[in-house]
């Protein structure tokens, strides 16, 4: 209640987030594979749809691994609390 809120300059000096430009690419690839798989199921090609759904899981896992790896590389440990 009595604590003063930090100013904008203090917030900017604390820690700047590093963004990996490949993460949005992974997210778009995941969405594209998901869409292709759903279209394949809709058209009746269940075998191709199953393959694409498995590919989506692989791409999604790679994207998450990229995000965790980027955080760990730049000093943030996702498994420890502050």
From TrEMBL:
Residues 1-82 form the HIG1 domain. It is found in: Mitochondrion membrane. The chain crosses the membrane at residues 22-41, 53-74. Its main location: mitochondrion. GO terms for cellular component: mitochondrial membrane. It comes from the Eukaryota. Keywords: Membrane, Mitochondrion, Transmembrane, Transmembrane helix. PANTHER family: HIG1 DOMAIN FAMILY MEMBER 1A, HYPOXIA-INDUCBILE GENE 1 HIG1 -RELATED. This is HIG1 domain-containing protein. It comes from Rubroshorea leprosula.
